[in-house]
Amino acid sequence: MHNLNELFRLKKIIQMKLGLFISILHFLFSINTKAQEIEVLFYFNYDSDTLTNDTKARLDSLIPNLSDSKVTITGATDTIGNKKYNDALAFKRAQNVKDYLVQNGINKEEISNVSSVGETNRFTTIKKNRNVLLIYTQNNKTDENTIQKQINVDKHIEKKSEKVKNRAEESEIENKVKKDEEDHLSRTRDVDITQKTFHQAEVGDILNISGLEFVPGRKDLLKSSKPTIKKLAKILKKNPSIKIEIQGHICCQNYGDGIDNDTGENNLSYTRAKKVYKLLRWKGVNKDQLSFKGYGSSRKLVEETNEASRQRNRRVSILIVEK
Question: 297 with 256: CB under 8 angstroms?
C-alpha cells in the first residue's frame, strides 16, 4: 500500500513538472515567433536619388531577412532648395530602394507602402536627413543572434564608408550651395514696394524687399517693417492673380538654419517666413496667393563683415510664383 501511494505521489510530481515544462516551451515559442519591427536607415548623397555602393551592400545583406515580411519604405531630404523638388526627390529615393529590392528577389506584394516625408530636420546633422527609412515586420524565423549580426554588419559597412563619403559629400554640398547662391543672386533684385515693381516683375524673379528686417535671433519684425507689410498686403489684394513664395533667410552661420530664441527650435528662417505669411493673412490677403519656406543660411546676399551686412542677410524675400 505504501509503495502504491508513493507511485501516485511520483506520478503527480511528474505531471506537474511536465505541465510546467510545456508552459515554459509555449512561452519561449511565443517570444521567438513574436512579430518584430526593425528599422534600417540608408543614406544618400546630396541632391541624389542614386543608391550608393554601401547602400546596395547593406540591402544585399538585408534581403534574406525580408522574406515573408511586411516592408514599408519612406524617403526624406534635407531642407536645402525648393520644397516641391525635394518632395519628389524624397519619393524617388524610396522608389529606387523598392526597385532594387524587387530586382533582387523580394516579392513586390511584401512591400506594403512606399512614401515620402519630404523635407525633414529629424537629425541635427544635415547629411543624415538625406535618407530612406526601411521598416520590416516579420514573424521572427531568425534568432536574436542573427538579427544582432545583421545590425553589426550594417554598422561596420556604414563606418567603413563614412570617412570617404563625408569628404566627397562636403565638397559636393559646398559646390551645390555655391551654385544655388549664384542662381539666387542672379534672380534677386532690391526693390521698394510699389504697384510698378510688381507689374514689371516676371515669374521667377526674387524681390528683396527693403524694409523687411528682423530682431536678431527672433521671428519678430522690427517696428520699422510694419508699413512695408501694409503696402505689400495692399498690392497683393489689388492683384489677386499674383502668387508669391515668402522666403526666410538668416545670417551669421555657413550651413543649416538658426535657432529661434522664442522656441529653441532650429528653424528660424522658417518661422520668419511664416510670421510674414500670418501678417499678410491678417491683413486680408487670400491664402491661395501665399506660400512660405525657410532657406536657412543657404542664400546670402553679401559677405558678412559687420552688423550692416549681417542685417542685410537677415531678411525675407519674395519669389514671384505666378502672375
Answer: yes
pTM for this entry: 0.47
Q: Is 239 helix (H, G, I), strand (E, B) or coil?
A: coil
User: Where do we find the cell 535657432?
Assistant: 259
Q: Are 256 and 296 in contact (CB under 8 A)?
A: yes
Alpha-carbon distance of 77 to 50, in angstroms, equals: 13
Question: Cα separation of 153 and 58, whole Å?
Answer: 8
Q: Which grid coordinates are listed for 199?
A: 507689374
- Residues 47-69: pLDDT tens digits? 899 999 889 989 988 888 887 78
> Residue 224's closest CA among 242, 211, 237?
211
Residue 57: CA count within 13 A, CB half-sphere: 11
Non-local CB neighbours of 293 within 8 Å, separated by 6+ positions = 83, 245, 246, 247, 248, 270, 273
**Cβ atoms within 10 Å, residue 229:** 20
Strand order of the sheet with strand 35-43?
35-43, 131-139, 70-77, 111-119
Cβ burial of 134 (10 Å; 0-12, 13-18, 19+) is buried
What residues pair up with 71 in beta bridges, in sequence order?
A: 111, 136
Which residue bears the cell 516625408?
A: 117
Q: Which secondary-structure segment (H or E) carries 196?
A: helix 195-200
Q: 211's torsion region: left (phi>0), alpha (psi -120 to 50) or beta?
A: left
Tell me the residue type at 131.
N
Closest residue by Cα to residue 243 from 284, 204, 270, 197? 204
One-letter amino acid for residue 56 of the chain: K
CA distance 186 to 80: 18
Closest to 286 in 3D by CA, of 237, 252, 250, 244: 237
Measured CA to CA in angstroms, residue 214 lies from 202, 217, 275 at distances of 27, 8, 11
Report the first-to-last Cα separation within the chain, whole angstroms.
Answer: 106
Query: Is the CB of residue 171 less than 8 Å from the CB of residue 179?
Result: no
Q: With left for phi above 0 and alpha for psi between -120 and 50, is residue 210 left, alpha or beta?
A: beta
Query: How large a percentage of the chain has pLDDT more than 90?
Result: 26
